[in-house]
Amino acid sequence: MYQDLRIFSGNAHPALAQAICDYLEMPLGQCEVIKFSNENIFVRFCENIRARDVFLVQPIVSPVNDRLMELFVMIDAAKRASAGRITAVVPYYAYGRSDKKDQPRVPITARLVANFLETAGADRLLTVDLHAGQIQGFFNIPVDELTSLYILGRYFKDKDIPNLTAIATDVGDARRARNVADRLDVPLAIVEKRRIGNEQRSEAVNIIGEVKGMNALIVDDEVDTGSTLIATVDLLQQHGTAAIYACCTHPVLSGPAVERIEQSSIRELVVTDTIPLPVEKRLPKITVLSLAPLLGEAIQRIHTGHSVGELFQ
């Protein structure tokens, strides 16, 4: 058994780290994570972590490469400070879309990031809703993948929306939407889409399932530029869908996403706080659910050697 639990945060999402500590009724650990004028990153732990069970909270969010480097340096600093065990808590795992060679002469960056984390000295990874399940297999250290689908599903179950159908935005991602549909006891429809080259743009071409006159709940793991979401909304409207809701775990909301969502007919987009959402992106139609209790419970279970999987049974 490792000694006392300690939780620290990089600069990516200190509010989430603090919320996790509030749930666990413990103080957030003190550390400095500084970027010098020459863009070099410096980390110093301001308390003793020798033999401690250290958890480093750092989703890989914008600016992505700075946040990645911060995490690597934090892990190295903790390792050199003789931490007993180092768990990287990465609620949002960037580069997750680059999980395979789908074209000639391209990288598998999700695997590269896994290699970096291991080389830096991480002993475990705790994450939420990876874009592709096989990313777990890129690691030679234990990976605990949590899911927000139960929390999102509970939210919409409490809303009790009549004549609801869950919508998968892609044939390859139907399992995620199926899980939500099962929890809500509603039917599932699947959108066939075509992604256009390496551009962050996709085209929805068909719907498998009945949606006419139904209320729709679009389910996805993340919303980036919003192109897939809006293409799905447009296709649903063409097929006579009534009210349209949407949910995702990771609100990346880059580029024109917020404007697209604001101008769309989506009644409500429900997201989680794996990624910090600045004030200017908090539209009235965007609802944020906190995963701090889920992450806090998982951290406590990892620390005490109990099952994390039991959280979802």
Descriptive terms for the model:
313 residues, alpha/beta, Rossmann fold, 2 domains, seven-stranded mixed β-sheet, five-stranded parallel β-sheet, 8 helices, 30% helix, 27% strand
Tell me about this structure.
With 313 residues, the protein is α/β, with parallel strands linked by helices. The mean pLDDT is 94. It contains eight helices and 14 strands. The protein is globular and about 60 Å long. The protein has helices at 14-24, 64-80, 109-120, 149-159, 174-184, 227-238, 257-263, 292-304, and strands spanning 3-9, 31-35, 41-45, 52-57, 85-90, 124-128, 143-146, 164-168, 188-195, 202-208, 215-223, 244-251, 266-272, 286-289. The two termini are 25 Å apart. It has two domains: 3-147 and 292-312, 3-Layer(aba) Sandwich (Rossmann fold), CATH 3.40.50.2020; 149-289, Rossmann fold. Helix 1 (14-24) crosses helix 8 and helix 4 (149-159) packs across helix 5 (174-184). The strands form three sheets. Strands 10-9-8-11-12-13-14 form a seven-stranded mixed β-sheet, with helices on both faces.
Determine the fraction of residues in helical runs and give it as a percent range. Answer: 25-40%
- Please state the second-level CATH architecture of the largest domain: 3-Layer(aba) Sandwich
- Any low-confidence stretches, pLDDT <50, length ≥5? none
User: Roughly what is the average pLDDT, rounded to an integer?
Assistant: 94
CATH classification, class level of the largest domain: Alpha Beta
Number of helices, where a helix is a run of at least 4 consecutive DSSP H or I residues: 8
Q: Under CATH, the topology of the largest domain is which?
A: Rossmann fold
Distance between the termini: 25 Å
**Radius of gyration in whole Å, from Cα?**
20 Å
**Strand runs, count:** 14
Query: Helix/strand-derived class?
Result: alpha/beta
* Helix and strand sequence: EHEEEHEHEEHEHEEEHEHEEH
> How many distinct domains?
2
The major β-sheet equals: 7 strands, mixed
Indicate the overall shape: globular
Share of β-strand residues: 25-35%
Give the strand order of the largest sheet, numbering strands 1, 2, ... along the chain.
10-9-8-11-12-13-14
